[in-house]
Design goal:
This protein is α+β, with helices and mostly antiparallel strands. It has helices at 10-14, 110-120, 151-173; strands spanning 6-8, 19-27, 43-52, 57-70, 77-91, 100-101, 106-108. The strands form 2 sheets. The chain has a 5-stranded mixed beta sheet with strand order 2-3-4-5-6, covered by helices on one side. It is elongated. Bound molecules: zinc ion (2 copies). One zinc ion (ZN) binds at residues 71, 73-74, 76, 126-127, 131. Residues 135, 137-138, 140, 147, 149 line the site of one zinc ion.
């Protein structure tokens, strides 16, 4: 199946400094996201500018996608629209290890869009920063139905989990 984001760049390749805009709405199914967070049947908004350099084409602009998942503590359904700014390089002769390939006079934005959209949707969101989650003993949703179980057990558990998360976040950014 042909990529719905295959762009003819013959004009761009002729002269450095040339610009072309790509504004499209592509059905999410075209990307094979294989990720339950991307809403089935939704459209991915692609608003990009392609700019010819002497050694490639730089692509910048924004991508938007509808996402849906659950609060990681209380499992409430959450949804939203992710927007991500991208700046990527395409090259016929790859000299930048992060560059995407140009094949002939075509540039395929599909894989780049797919990767950036997946990075932009939340991984394990909370319905609110202080979501109390579910009671580990009786399963009650503590936000709407406080239970009479001992609270100390639960609070210690979240504190341990949050400390773990903080460690992961720190080591991830180093
Ligand atoms: Zn929640
Ligand atoms: Zn309980």
């Amino acid at each position: 199946m042909a990529s719905p984001l295959l762009i003819n760049i013959a004009e761009l390749l002729r002269r450095a400094g040339s610009i072309r805009d790509v504004d499209r709405q592509i059905d999410a199914s075209e990307f094979d996201f294989a990720d339950s967070r991307i809403v089935d049947g939704s459209k991915i908004d692609v608003a990009l500018t392609l700019e010819a350099l002497t050694d490639g084409i730089v692509v910048h602009g924004t991508l938007q996608a509808d996402w849906r998942c659950e609060c990681r503590r209380c499992l409430r359904p959450l949804s939203g629209r992710a927007e991500v700014e991208v700046q990527e390089l395409y090259q016929a002769v790859i000299s930048d290890p992060d560059a995407y390939p140009i094949t002939g006079e075509q540039l395929d934005l599909l894989e780049m869009t797919r990767e950036n959209v997946l990075l932009s949707v939340p991984l394990a969101p909370l319905c609110r920063a202080d979501c109390p989650g579910l009671c580990p003993q009786c399963g009650a949703d503590l936000q709407s139905a406080p239970c009479s179980c001992s609270r100390e057990v639960r609070d210690e558990r979240w504190a341990a989990l949050d400390a773990l998360k903080a460690d992961e976040t720190q080591s991830g950014t180093e």
